[in-house]
Amino acid sequence: MRALLLLLCCFSLSSYAQSMQSAKKVLKLMGCRFELTAVATTDTVAWNAVNAGIAEIDRIEKLISSWDPNSQTSQINQAAGIAPVKVDQELFDLIFRAKKVSELTDGAFDISFASMDRIWTFDQTEQTLLDAQKVKHAAAKINWQNIVLDRTAQSVFLKETGMKIGFGAIGKGYAANKAKQLMQEITGVKGGLVNASGDLIAWGASTNPEGWQIQITDPSNKTKTLGNIALNDMAIVTSGDYEKYFRSQGKRYAHIINPKTGYPTTGIKSVSIICPDAELADALATSVFVLGIEEGLNLINQLNRIECLIISDEDKIHQSKNLDLNYF
Ligand code: ADP
Ligand code: MG
Questions:
Q1: 2 lines ligand 1 (CB under 6 A)
Q2: Tens of pLDDT, residues 159-190
Q3: Which ligand 1 atom is the nearest neighbour of the CA of 173?
Q4: Are 114 and 165 in contact (CB under 8 A)?
Q5: What residues in the chain have per-residue pLDDT under 70?
Q6: Best of 120, 256, 284, 287 for a ligand 1 pocket test (most atoms within 8 Å of beta carbon)
Q7: Whole-structure pTM value
Q8: What DSSP designation does 67 have?
């Protein structure tokens, strides 16, 4: 299980606000474990909200999946180097924002990483690193600037044959945001939580008297808690799948690709981003992995209301300037 080794949620259902009702469902969506909780004036409203959130995530999965050959995303990929594809406004806007993050991170984040998705196997084994020439060749099609957006035609065009986009680093955050928005708009809903395998967003009334809280586990001693973070209308998203990596000559290679080299990133075990927006948090967590500790922290420290916690391969903790982590 990713993130959850590091981040343990402690949302105990208590007798808080007895006038409030809550509903919670855990299920598999977008290939990962989702947990949706709603706090509402009645039991029926709470369940309606949870079900509406689930339907929303399901809808988004169909739009952004690159596995489903009929999704709009697959259509864009199939038409790479051939023709622009007209897409829903929603997908157009998501790709527009993804490109903005590429710009902000000087290409560390790049949804066109997907053209080389297959050359690495992140199966926890010891491997011989692939030859630099082969990697360079495989990475040649990665370039967010070749994702051409035409707002008037509402179309997306991947300029080169063989280019591909994928939303692995932003999709869960986007889905969590959208589910939250929809649930929040339902009359009678007072708060909730959408947790996509440790990428989560929480708002309003909680099932816990202390409000929504998240505990950070000490990476060097999993039985100890390092501190906790209060999530008031906030998202916390962690990149760093503890199962998806391989080793080579004493180094650990994570399943996040440096678009400039084509090689998987090293040096960082996990990155958590805390900010009001789960999609941005998701994209930035991946970006910091690629940028590395120093450059990553430097970027986050320049952004307003965005904080970051990095755990290095040596279990050292690095955090952004204003992170309000209440150490125990
Ligand atoms: P996690 O899977 O640990 O939640 P991320 O949110 O960072 O972490 O997502 C990792 C996924 O992002 C990878 O499996 C891959 O699909 C995609 N990806 C890898 N490298 C990049 C990159 N440089 N930019 C954008 N997406 C990437
Ligand atoms: Mg991400």
A1: yes
A2: 999 999 999 999 999 999 999 999 999 999 99
A3: 6
A4: yes
A5: 1-18, 117, 326-328
A6: 256
A7: 0.93
A8: S
